[in-house]
């Protein structure tokens, strides 16, 4: 299972991009693709068209709602990673991947690497 970060959702729309090629390869291989609701929110803030949203949504098996257990995990990650304000949304996305048992596909390795020692697996 692979959890897609916002940048994978956005760049998945760009024909020929590495991200769009990986999305196609993962889908063809039968990989389960998910995303965190905070990433979906960031993606749909756009600018994107309804057709683009539908195209990316067609790759996703699940949009994972952000609930109380995810909030607790995100808070744990945020605190463990040093309470940097810029990591708040990233902690929510990382928590979703960890709780779902998924690896995270992201281009933001700098920020998400702070969560690797605390259970996050990166693609």
TrEMBL record:
SUPFAM superfamilies tied to this protein: PIN domain-like
Co-factor(s): Mg(2+)
Pfam family, one: PIN
Keywords (A to Z) from UniProt: Hydrolase, Magnesium, Metal-binding, Nuclease, Toxin-antitoxin system
Keyword Nuclease annotated: yes
Domain PIN: 2-109
Keyword Lipoprotein: no
A GO MF label: hydrolase activity
Gene3D superfamilies: 5'-nuclease (3.40.50.1010)
Family: Belongs to the PINc/VapC protein family.
PANTHER family in the cross-refs: RIBONUCLEASE VAPC2 (PTHR33653:SF1)
Name of the molecule in the record: Putative nucleic acid-binding protein
Organism annotation: Prosthecobacter vanneervenii
Organismal lineage: Bacteria, Pseudomonadati, Verrucomicrobiota, Verrucomicrobiia, Verrucomicrobiales
């Amino acid at each position: 299972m692979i959890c897609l970060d916002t940048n994978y959702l956005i760049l998945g729309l760009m024909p020929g991009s590495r991200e769009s090629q990986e999305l196609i390869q993962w889908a063809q291989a039968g990989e389960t693709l998910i995303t965190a609701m905070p990433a979906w929110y960031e993606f749909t803030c756009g600018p994107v068209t309804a057709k683009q949203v539908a195209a990316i949504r067609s790759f996703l098996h699940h949009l994972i709602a952000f609930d109380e257990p995810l909030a607790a995990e995100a808070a744990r990650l945020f605190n463990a990673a040093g309470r940097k304000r810029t990591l708040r949304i990233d902690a929510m996305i990382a928590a979703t991947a960890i709780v779902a048992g998924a690896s995270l596909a992201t281009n933001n390795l700098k920020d998400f690497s702070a969560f690797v020692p605390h259970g996050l697996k990166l693609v």
